[in-house]
Amino acid sequence: MSSNYGIQRDIPDLQKKRALYQPELPPCLQGTDVRVEFGDGTTTADLTGHHVISHSFPCTYGQPLAHFLRPTAKVADAQIITEHPTIRVGFVFSGRQSPGGHNVVWGLYNALRIHNPNSSLFGFIGGTEGLFAQKFLKITEEVLSTYKNQGGYDMLGRTQDQIRTTEQVNAAMASCQTLKLNGLVIVGGVTSNTDAAQLAETFASAKCPTKVVGVPVTLNGDLKNQFVETNVGFDTICKVNSQLISNICTDALSAEKYYYFVRLMGRKASHVALECTLQSHPNMVILGEEVSSAKLTLFDITTQICDAVQERAEHGKSHGVVLIPEGLVETVPELYALLQEIHGLQKNGVPTDNISKQLSPWASALFKFLPPFFRRQLLLLPESDESAQLSQIEMEKLLAQLVETEINKRLKAGIYKGKKFNAICHFFGYQARGSLPSKFDSDYAYVLGHICYHILAAGLNGYMATITNLKNPVNKWKCGAAPITAMMTVKQWSYGPRTNSIGKPAIHPATVDLRGKAYELLRQNAANYLIDDDYRNPGPLQFEGPGSDAKAFTLCVEDQDYMGRIKKLQSYLDKVKTIVKPGCSQDVLVAALSSMSSVIDVLSVMTAPSYSGQSYL
Amino acid sequence: MSSNYGIQRDIPDLQKKRALYQPELPPCLQGTDVRVEFGDGTTTADLTGHHVISHSFPCTYGQPLAHFLRPTAKVADAQIITEHPTIRVGFVFSGRQSPGGHNVVWGLYNALRIHNPNSSLFGFIGGTEGLFAQKFLKITEEVLSTYKNQGGYDMLGRTQDQIRTTEQVNAAMASCQTLKLNGLVIVGGVTSNTDAAQLAETFASAKCPTKVVGVPVTLNGDLKNQFVETNVGFDTICKVNSQLISNICTDALSAEKYYYFVRLMGRKASHVALECTLQSHPNMVILGEEVSSAKLTLFDITTQICDAVQERAEHGKSHGVVLIPEGLVETVPELYALLQEIHGLQKNGVPTDNISKQLSPWASALFKFLPPFFRRQLLLLPESDESAQLSQIEMEKLLAQLVETEINKRLKAGIYKGKKFNAICHFFGYQARGSLPSKFDSDYAYVLGHICYHILAAGLNGYMATITNLKNPVNKWKCGAAPITAMMTVKQWSYGPRTNSIGKPAIHPATVDLRGKAYELLRQNAANYLIDDDYRNPGPLQFEGPGSDAKAFTLCVEDQDYMGRIKKLQSYLDKVKTIVKPGCSQDVLVAALSSMSSVIDVLSVMTAPSYSGQSYL
């Protein structure tokens, strides 16, 4: 591990100027006092998993939501926190680096200093490895100075992405005890926040006084639920990738001889691919969620692309841009089944060279059909979350090859009459992850950092910092905290040999909602994108002038104000109580009972385990 | 070919704002009158080729330099052009699309309109193919409106990159005659400008009245000589690539587990790789020019990288970033020789499948040693300029594999003691080519467009539009024109079976000057870059605020004012004449003769064919 963590760096003009940018705080977090309002105790969206989760998290399940309000807010039950004792907080970067991660630290540091200059913040060096090994750096203004509004996790680095084994959990606890930490903040995505919840539970039951807080930081944008609208890093990643995709579109249209197949980083879900499509209008995108839902095979997808190429050729076009999410390989049924067999054999210790011989006849036939480079990539060991090494599997190359073969066939058969098909493949991911964070991500992360402090000041454990109403300006943002357990679901079944994963509560990556407005927007325009070359170039990430305040389409088109609605429901219930007070007329009471009984009926049906409204299309 | 060329597009905020940006003109081009001063007749830097060139270009060789001055400039012999008859001008995009190409058209269009509103501009559709087929679009303010300051060549598209065969040249001439063109402007790189010179010569000897003008537009930055300081597109490409390389550096430093091997587009020369290195400070760059000059083999380069990996491991570092120019493959002696054999066999009609069997024993052994993906890429047919298909040959993957094998060997032998070596490969090119042009490229291209008009107004043929003093603000830029033949050289020898290329005058791509200041800057810092992770992030291309006025390091560090020096020399000679007028003292005359004789001696030695000061290192 390198020894120059946290050192000051010599940086060019733009970076310097960005380092001087001071994100704004929403009104509720300005000043030194903050009012906390607790809502009702939480449940989970997945009611069928409710019992499993509450059983696994006896100390931390069912805790109430928390809303942070300005001290002058007129809310009866809210509690003002005026005492700010000296506290000691640690934080750890866990999971893929996402632009904005540094600002969480900065926000947290500033909040600590504002409320008590004697409080201290420690960063674990090299991520979880530092947490286990008690290697840390005390964060100071000097350490922070060159990392404000900067990308990467290089202030401290990151290593493994999990805190899960008994050994790891005990090492983390020992670290917190040795350092006498009042709080531990975990910066990461779905896996890291699931680990944060587990750690919180373990600490609580072991009477370890350290409170654990999670922060939703992941470029994948898949930590999305009732409480979390988007993740730190997603905005930047989509902007940088959209810039490049748009450049590729312009390039395709200028030379008119290439089809570009671009695979996008983003893990299992296709959020990045969807957002980039809405930003750049490439000709086609194959979302993993569509493939899953329609159970499209490799042959179906190839045919779909070939039909598009052929239709474009009929319009005189021999160029195009096709986007593919990196998770696609796991959504194609036959490839998924093949991967399951391979991973099963690997788990049983079968050496790589022997795997192809031990596959079932069906899987073996598919394996042989695939080109050598792709076979090698399928044989890579799976990642810690048991998924395939998505970043290393060049699905875009496989599709390009299959499409080329099929188009050549159609050409011979006289069905395709266009020019020679030429494909160029790209994988966009690593080149975006280290970007300077956008203004939105800089602000979002900084405010989340502040919220982490308030969660700890309120003595909460096992919570995630949340901000809603994000599509509006910062002064309209609503700050809160939600128990991480309320975001969990339980997988009810599992394929293949991974039977041990059944029933373990976790935050699962949210997939693209095929009934959501963002997807609807895509469907409405897909035909235009396909034929008309309606390319759109949002340009490079700007920090001043036009474009600098742009936000993600997928954030802005959805009407997501869950927290606001929860509050509105509460006010309806209160109003019913106020109207139907003892002494009201019999008629009013009968009407209320009848109406409420009908409400209960509807909700009971909708929340019964057999109700399939969520998954049926 | 698609039918929607030149259509207006719906574009997002930043693009709209950019479309409204109006580049400034240097003082000499402001107003409606321009003064032209003609310098001495030109020669070539390569005196040995002088005769061949003058013989090949009897009509257009040796024409004088032209300088455009403001009408008030006090220069005795300058000619003011006040008559601006209606003219008809055509233009064609030729060669790889480069950011800024559209602005050349815009500048030319505006200059035409300012000087005579009845003049007209025609753009050939689909590049050279449109030129040959007489397919064109009349350029209007409406056509231009959504392409101002925008990337790509998609206003009109481009196809083949050459105008060379008799058939092509005749078709071009027929087009110019049918359209009654007074001028034809060719926008492109070294190949296209060589073709422009040939066309000018052919037109002149055939008494075709169309004057041909070239514009140096190429992202490769390799059209560099006494008259041309840099090319339109180079600045943008380097900025976009540097942004991505810097992101990759931040990523490497955050995760500390990958070595990134990044190949950069830029053809034979390594200008893009050098500039990006100075911008981003990656750990290593392998310049093709270094490899050529030191005759490094594949083994040498692998060893060099492995030694670096090992040294970094000794400093506890298991990550890094290595840049490679796409031209590298042709500079490694054994790969070059192998490519020559392959291309020779291809020229003789040997089918691809049989080539490996017909290679010489030595080449065959090397071919077998190379991994299958790389063999396939070497077998691709060469491009029109007889070079290999550089963009398709994944040299970065080959090096990554060779380094991995060697590091694993050293690990077993106990020499390398670091962590497991993991490489990730990238090719950056297509994703930068279509970018919105930087402010510099927008300005440079726009002003060059204006100069094209003045070249035609002055009745010049076979000239290239030039601007010098580019590192200074626009109001200090010096505008001129130089005969394209003065930029030509003649290759004195050639390897292998391509003997037909001997002796043909052409503009050859300028390579990185290993004695230049930019390279010196790299060498001074190479040791720091290698070990210290002195990464620098210039950030995404900005259009407002800090960074937006940045210019390329390679442009700014060189002291290039060739045109200024030519003028200064003229003034010295004039001064000698003034001092040593008939009637001066015998002493003064003797001193003058003695001094001048010594000057002549020195210059004669330096310009003799055997003098090797240019190529000796």
UniProtKB/TrEMBL annotation, chains A, B:
Q: Name one GO cellular component term.
A: cytoplasm
The cross-references to SUPFAM superfamilies, in alphabetical order and at most eight, read:
Phosphofructokinase
**Localization:** Cytoplasm
Keywords of this entry: Allosteric enzyme, Cytoplasm, Glycolysis, Kinase, Magnesium, Metal-binding, Transferase
Q: What chemistry does it catalyse, as a reaction equation?
A: beta-D-fructose 6-phosphate + diphosphate = beta-D-fructose 1,6-bisphosphate + phosphate + H(+)
Instruction: Name the major location.
Output: cytoplasm
GO biological process per UniProt: fructose 6-phosphate metabolic process; photosynthesis; response to glucose
For the keyword Lipid biosynthesis, the answer is no
Q: Which residues form the Phosphofructokinase domain?
A: 88-453
Give the multimer and partner information: Tetramer of two alpha (regulatory) and two beta (catalytic) chains.
Instruction: Name the HAMAP family for this protein.
Output: Phosphofructokinase_II_Long
Family recorded in the similarity comment: Belongs to the phosphofructokinase type A (PFKA) family. PPi-dependent PFK group II subfamily. Clade 'Long' sub-subfamily.
Function as written in the Swiss-Prot or TrEMBL entry: Regulatory subunit of pyrophosphate--fructose 6-phosphate 1-phosphotransferase.
Q: What is this protein called?
A: Pyrophosphate--fructose 6-phosphate 1-phosphotransferase subunit alpha
Native species? Zostera marina
What gene is it encoded by?
A: PFP-ALPHA
